[in-house]
């Protein structure tokens, strides 16, 4: 799977990139929404890992752009700042949420859930 990791924190990007590559995924990183939007336009992304709170435009802005462009990668929000209302709204849109600080198992579980959503024969699609 091709995964785009978007986070303004270098250490978070590095950790996610390294961990996801170890599991056989192709990983691209972006440090802000503008960089990520350009990569979404030029790459065929399967999963978008995104932080919500970043300087300038935030992750919510990018989630909106994903729908507008017609490219529908699965979205995993990875943030310490998700209100209960926003969390519910995101979950209703099919977004996975990982709260910072997170464990590697949570990252792997979220990716597996996204993979199952792409598989028409998986049990995750029938729920």
From TrEMBL:
<protein>
    <submittedName>
        <fullName>Putative Sporulation initiation phosphotransferase F</fullName>
        <ecNumber>2.7.-.-</ecNumber>
    </submittedName>
</protein>
<dbReference type="InterPro" id="IPR050595">
    <property type="entry name" value="Bact_response_regulator"/>
</dbReference>
<dbReference type="GO" id="GO:0016740">
    <property type="term" value="F:transferase activity"/>
</dbReference>
<dbReference type="Pfam" id="PF00072">
    <property type="entry name" value="Response_reg"/>
</dbReference>
<dbReference type="InterPro" id="IPR011006">
    <property type="entry name" value="CheY-like_superfamily"/>
</dbReference>
<feature type="domain" description="Response regulatory">
    <location>
        <begin position="2"/>
        <end position="115"/>
    </location>
</feature>
<dbReference type="InterPro" id="IPR001789">
    <property type="entry name" value="Sig_transdc_resp-reg_receiver"/>
</dbReference>
<feature type="modified residue" description="4-aspartylphosphate">
    <location>
        <position position="51"/>
    </location>
</feature>
<dbReference type="GO" id="GO:0000160">
    <property type="term" value="P:phosphorelay signal transduction system"/>
</dbReference>
<keyword id="KW-0808">Transferase</keyword>
<keyword id="KW-0597">Phosphoprotein</keyword>
